[in-house]
Write a structure and sequence with these properties.
CATH architecture: Up-down Bundle
Number of domains: 1
Strand content: under 5%
CATH superfamily: Ferritin, core subunit, four-helix bundle
Structural class: mainly alpha
Largest sheet: none
Helix content: 55-70%
CATH topology: Ferritin
Shape: globular
Length: 252
């Protein structure tokens, strides 16, 4: 695998993850538990969409085949997406959405804190801008995890059930393959093993404050690094891509 091929796939992995999480969170627009939270989650979705757009633009340059960021987002099939499995999971109730966001925010905070140091100037610049937004996202989702976990019996049970369901998707976030190996040697990619300990420590700290228990199962669901996904991604793409595929020449 060449450096160019690895960098292109690396960019897709990052952009796809932000895009699909933005799409999932966007489903809450107009349906949040109250107005301020409806707006907060919608703004987080827009931040994620902006991150995805910036990285797709760079991926287009790296690929060098004339595909635009819109074409990369709306004209690839399910097996050509490399987003982590956790972001494509169903929203469920608000506790599940918040718990998913929290686990992703914790990862993104430590990941982008390291990506800022990348020798790739474009990725470093995107990371620096994104980190400002992610810091807010992480603070927001963390406070909600504590609020729900240490709240009523109902809120505690709901977010504990969400943790039980989503925990099996967290191990994959730290999985590395040839793409990572090539780019780590070049000083471009983040060594995920190096940030996993930090992620685990912070997540456990906040979950303990929320009186939540991490599931004891060691099983972790994997597959996205090879473009293998749960059944949910196909439905997301069918909805998200329907208009651009029906009118591919449309200008927005």
């Amino acid at each position: 695998m060449t450096k160019q091929e690895a960098l292109f796939k690396y960019c897709l992995r990052l952009a796809d993850t932000s895009l699909i999480l933005a799409q999932r969170n966007g489903e809450w627009c107009g349906h949040g538990p109250f107005l301020e939270e409806d707006l907060a989650l919608t703004n987080i979705s827009l931040d994620l969409l902006g991150q995805a757009n910036s990285i797709f633009q760079y991926a287009s340059q790296v690929e060098g085949k004339g595909r635009t960021e819109d074409q990369l987002a709306f004209h690839r099939n399910e097996r050509e997406f490399y987003n982590t499995l956790i972001v494509e999971q169903l929203n469920g109730d608000y506790a599940k959405t918040i718990l998913r966001q929290f686990l992703c925010d914790a990862f993104d905070f430590y990941f982008y804190s390291e990506l800022v140091k990348s020798k790739d100037e474009t990725l470093s610049a995107i990371a620096a801008k994104s980190l400002k937004e992610i810091t807010y996202h992480f603070r927001h989702s963390s406070s909600w995890v504590e609020r729900l976990g240490d709240g009523t019996d109902e809120s505690h049970n709901r977010i504990q059930n969400a943790l039980n369901e989503l925990w099996r998707f967290t191990g994959e976030m730290f999985e590395m393959n040839e793409v990572d190996s090539v780019l780590i040697k070049e000083g471009i990619a983040v060594d995920l093993a190096a940030i996993q300990t930090k992620w685990e420590s912070k997540v456990k700290e906040i979950l303990e404050r929320a009186t939540l228990k991490i599931p004891s199962t060691a099983f972790m669901q994997r597959g996205s690094r090879e473009g293998k996904h749960t059944e949910h991604l196909g439905y997301i793409l069918a909805e998200m891509q329907s208009l651009p595929r029906a009118l591919p020449d449309a200008k927005w």
